[in-house]
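Notes from hallway chat w/ T.B., transcribed later so I don't forget. T.B. wanted the structure written out for a chain they're using in a teaching module, and asked if we could keep both sequence and structure tokens in one place. Agreed to drop them here.
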Amino acid sequence: MLDVLITGGTVVDGTGAPPRRADVGIRAGRIVALGEVTEPAERTIDATGLVVAPGFVDIHTHYDAQVLWDPACTPSPLHGVTTVIGGNCGFTIAPMAPSEADYITRMLARVEGMPLDALTTAVSYDWSSFGEYLDVVEAKGVAVNAGFLVGHCALRRVVMGEDGSERAATADEIAAMQDLLAASLRGGGLGFSSSQATTHNDADGEPVPSRHATPDELLALCATTGEHPGTTLEFIPVVGGFAEEHLDLMARMSATADRPLNWNVLAPSSLRAEDNWRQLEAGTYAAERGGRVLALTVPHVVTSHLSFKAGFVLDALPGWRKPMALPVPEKVALLSDPAQRRALADQAASPEAGVLRGIADWGGHTIVETFHPDNAGLAGRTVGDIAAERGQDPFDALCAISVLDEMRTVFRPRGVSDDDASWTLRRDVWRDGRAVIGASDAGAHLDMLSTFNYSTSLLQAARDRDLVPLEEAVHYITDVPARLYGLVDRGRIAEGWHADLVVLDPATVAPAPVAWADDLPAGAGRLTGGAVGITHVLVNGVEIVRGTELTGATPGTVLRSGRDTETVTAR
């Protein structure tokens, strides 16, 4: 007898093949029958009029901490995600030394937008090795399949202590990091991640540890990664366009490890189409030198929620790094001073701001949320309209609002890249072999981003804008990322493969509205939201989502390299 039979549905198998009418029979967590299935089952799911697809694979999340208190890694499974990869951008909570726990916690709160109170309440750090961390996650249970890369920042701090945040490593220190990385990969780490992005600063406003690494250090760690089966590379080389040095470094990293490297992040826009295609040339450059480099591309319009309190993204503006790291009372004093405000505004609008200069379009920002009674009624209005009404400069008006709110004012930059040309460019990037869809950042930037809904946003856009057929869209968020990361028997609907499945209504699937919820440890809050048109989500043959609700089941697998992933080479 089958455990589960999904009957009456149209199967989109993940390979890009045309949809076909088929039943899906499941036993012991695997798909054992596909087609017309007559064997009885303990439970039958009627999928008449619906599509049965592989569960979606999200290769860029930051659930490393959240998984410890939220085994479902919400809201991802509500959007059909059945496998998540964490440990991206060089940020992990393992391996760990007691002396570094406070720094790592505060760094994550600052750079990844995770509430500090939630982290200090719910992350115990009762492990030292990476394998022990995975054991803790496994013992708590997970609803989704979850794997984690080994982050460069933790390696540096464990080996070098405070010096890891201040200087280049010596040859002996690099060798020690290689040993620690090797132990972490043997313990199940799925690969190595790092960042040299100027947007990545710690709680003190200083560059995160990985930004102090030399190319020699990065290449040494890539060489170590390549010695272990089922591993991969993830990297942020720079914010903005690539110089020759960035192309060369990524190509050498990939070739040295003989592993693919995905870089973060490509956000297609018709305003920067030529720049986008130039960035994709990193893939061609690497291929000519024995490597494989892919852009991690966000498949929809990204809406950011910014605040002077968090300061993330704003701190990448020239001269803003230190001010955005100040305590709130000092920020209030700073932004209350006309001279210092003007200095910040001038720096933000300078050519040195590069691709971030658009943030300095202060009048184009829309107020999302305010807190002081005197700011009531401003939500939903643009800063430009408010400034004109008050006879103020837009930046001065935004600062005045934020000062009253003690820096908690939430504002949203002007929407861009929602035009037809940008959507056509996105589709062309999806179809380019030098890119992979992802960049959800789920689990991070909890007060700023709602990109956790990338999968249902993609399916909605593919349908409503007639961009690509459903089977092609599903292929990009299932089989493509699964094959890139070497996930064994996941990402497709095929006999013998793991029964990670999503049942959806192709006519209605879409994100539900995003809202604020105070549902984190210590009463901390976040942006969150579910989906419509997702009716069932199964992980390893067990239903974890029914309609819009979690079932509470935890059938997920903690993915370990060499066991749950196979080697994918760069060539």
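Follow-up for T.B.: Residues 171-186 form the longest helix (16 residues). Might be a good example for the class.
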